[in-house]
Amino acid sequence: MDQRYVEEVLALGHELRSFEVKGPGSINDKAYVAKVARAAMAMGNIRDGGQICLGIDNTKLAAMLPGLTAEQVTEWTNYDNVSDQLAKYSDPPPTFRIDPFTLTNCVAVVVLDVEEFDSGVHICKKDYAGELQTGQIYVRPRGKPRSVQVPTLADMRDLTDLAVDKGVRDFVRRAGAAGLPLDGAVKLSPQDLDATRFDNESSLGWAEPSPVDKPTPGTLVAGITVAAYSDVKLRPGPYEDDRIRPHELADFVTERAVRLRGWPVPMIDYRQPIARHGNWIAQDLQAEIVQHVEAWRLFTSGQFLHRRVVATDLHDAAELHAEAPDATGAIAVWDVLLYLVEVAELGARFATSLDVGTITIDVSLENIAGRELIPGDFGRILQGPYISSANRFAAHTDIDVPTLLGAPRAVGVDLTQQILRQFGLNLSDTVLDQWQAQTLYPATR
Predict the structure, then answer these.
(1) Class assignment of domain 3-154?
(2) Which one-letter DSSP state was computed for residue 253?
(3) 293 SS3 class
(4) Where in the chain is the domain with CATH 3.30.950.30?
């Protein structure tokens, strides 16, 4: 969670399923606290949780107005007091962190970054007239973003599926810690995985150019003429061409999208249609407001393809510039690391829903000749320079499902290491573990 992300979402002019705004209010206003508590329970009851931005009216998002007073900022940044107030209404209490920001228009806001529930869904335990009802479960349904009681059977199924998935993952972790041999899945041969049929799907999916291949003029930062991008293939094995029914493809990818950093992987734009090609669907996205370019494809076999332009080509920030004078551009370590952790988590979510024994993840960075590997963060230093002479670096893993479910972040770190070492950088897994944990899972404060 950072200020840039908050401002990019506000610039959209509408709320997201994982991002809600509340106009300014005091923690001493019981009606206002009840509204915030409802939003916190709803955010905690969706996959990956979400954010509540205090201080912005929902009719003035793009203008980022009116903001909190200094007294209100002080109230809402007192973690113990905020936690006590929200815990009055929710069982179990929501888990969250607090981030105060002064936006570029000098408006003050406070963001409550609410985590997905841990062991049990959040249930309202106290009435507040017109806002909350004891025993009700609040969610953020798909479609129009709002925090409401579970409105449909589909939304209740989303919630129960999430609870089941968490239970499965927790069992696998506990079994692994206890030494039970869950990693004894049969290893599949290349013939069993049927790479040829997966490759044929991939060729079909990328037969036509996407915005990743040629972004709209003006999208890339000055000096970059050809975008560097990541290319991911996620393949559940063995190959079966009908794991997901064609009419269920869109819901399948929507329900399993990963939002560890706010924006989902993949990003799904509900304002434009998803292209349907019989046994596969696709969407190409170029969001100019937030400077983001990606394209994804999902097949009935469960194969998922994803391409995205690297952050250093889209955001002209000082910390994202190459340091070596002869470098043609930069690749940020955090961009590779955090994205591949998200990809591994996406693979784990696919694995819990599909009857598969193995997940194969192929990753490559394309158009990177002359690019310098940089930290992308002023708080870290690399003893470089580390410049690629090749135009492509690749990483690969075939992993059995129990191992992936037990430690998806470790899988993401391993894929990252494969890429970084081709640049010549040798960091310990511990350093990368700490780096991604500090960003994706900061301590509650």
Answers:
(1) alpha beta
(2) H
(3) strand
(4) 3-154
